[in-house]
């Protein structure tokens, strides 16, 4: 299993679980009607979550888990700084 494969499977499983939880609400697919919200959601997934997860698994592959954990916890901080800088 490559880090990219693990990352993709993990994100797909999380997406399926979130959709199943959302279906229980009143308007489960409301995000699909608002184009701006959908673009933000997809951008966050592909530019925020996937790179953090990929870096984590790649670091575990080449290095060790403690360094990978530090990188993973720094990811949201970097994303927040980016968002605040370009808001």
UniProtKB/TrEMBL annotation:
SUPFAM superfamilies named in the record: Multidrug resistance efflux transporter EmrE (SSF103481)
Keyword line: Membrane, Transmembrane, Transmembrane helix
The keyword Nucleus is annotated on this UniProt entry: no
Protein name: EamA domain-containing protein
Native species: Lapidilactobacillus dextrinicus DSM 20335
Broad class of where this protein is predominantly found: membrane
Transmembrane segments annotated in the record for this chain: 35-57, 64-84
GO cellular component: membrane
